[in-house]
Amino acid sequence: MPTNIIMPALEMAQDTGKILRWLKREGDAVTKGEPIMEIETDKVTVEIEATATGTLANVTAREGDVIPVGQTIALIVDSVETLRATSLPVSPVARKIAEDHGVDLARVKPGGGRVEKADVLAYLALTPSPSPVRKIGEQVRGAKIPASPQARRLASERNVDLATLRGSGPDGAIIASDVPTAPTSNVQRETSNFQLPTSNLHAKRPISTIWRVMAERMTTNWTTVPHFYVVREVDARALVELRGRIASLVEKRVGVKPTYTDLLVKLIAHTLRDHPRVNASWVDGNIKLNDEINIGIATAIEDGLIVPVVHRADTLTMGDIATRRKDMVARAGAGKLKPADIAGGTFTLTNLGMYNVDAFNAIINAPQAAILAVGRIAERVVAVKGQAVVRPMMTLTLSCDHRVVDGARAAQFLDALANLIEEPWALLA
Length: 429
What we know:
Blueprint: E1 3-6, E2 16-22, E3 29-30, E4 35-40, E5 45-49, E6 54-57, E7 66-68, E8 72-77, H1 80-86, H2 92-100, H3 117-126, H4 149-157, H5 186-190, H6 209-224, E9 227-235, H7 237-254, H8 260-273, E10 280-283, E11 286-289, E12 295-297, E13 299-301, E14 304-306, E15 309-310, H9 318-333, E16 347-351, E17 370-374, E18 378-384, E19 387-401, H10 407-422, H11 425-428
Parallel strand pairs: 12-16, 16-17
Antiparallel strand pairs: 1-8, 2-4, 2-7, 3-6, 4-5, 6-8, 9-19, 10-11, 12-15, 13-14, 17-19, 18-19
Helix pairs in contact: 2-3, 7-9, 8-9, 8-10
């Protein structure tokens, strides 16, 4: 029986995915688990693996196409006979109607052994047709403009008339990336292909899909999640000393030298065990307590910001965490992350200490309840038992969703984490 290959949903609120490259061609043999295509999602470029072994057939999406989530784009069949059976004949009348109306016959479901005129007419009746040729801004009376749910929401929020937009999705449908950040006049749209010479100062720089969606997500998270912050300065002497002691040992064992980020992932995961509300999520108006502790590490790449996840971090050794972090960050920069690498995060760590940042406030990665922002370790003069001394200090800023975590719970978590950073030996020695 043929196995459908569909455009997967890798992130919440994802409407579409873009096919960047087919790694296998129609008629090629594929093996279960073997990469068959690369797609660009809301956050990353990922390779999609075959879910069955057989022959790739009925490929209906081309490289560069933007496909709605859940749509079938190819089949994996188990034999040449099955492959032939999936390529149904088409009557001449049905083919003529399909050509006249721009219908992809691969999407038409036949009622019998071949595609007939009635099958194509039924498809036209039930499927939004491609946008009719019309002037920009002119809409066919009573027609509903094809657009994804996210595109309609963004257009409503930004006061943009969908009738003024050209869709880049399947059959001309408008998708989220087609909706501008601010309303644009019809005159501007009609002349958009003609550009006067501009200086580099005023030239618009094209952005990637990853960056555009990141911007949309951050805007949504910032404007819909009620943030509050708790801040704590921590004496990092023990953390510095610990890394100095174990770095060479871990490197000899696994080939990777642990960073301060790796140490913090381990300490955070341990602290979250005793503070499950900070490891919770806000989902459909309710608080969801997560069964696993999966720490996301905010990672900057050329195209934007992504958050690969260290799953079940509380069960891993320092060597495990360092190895996984190094591998995922490297693949993130190369655009080779897999769907599982960015899924299931329950808490996020963002560390800008390596950029000499003292402290900052981070935006929560919804639906997670909290994100910890970490600054650099720097020597400061502090008071210890009435005396001025110089200590390596580090500032922690915890951003919380007030719908899930109140001030007292946030403070208790941060206090416990700070104490563990100042006395980590019992856990990591």
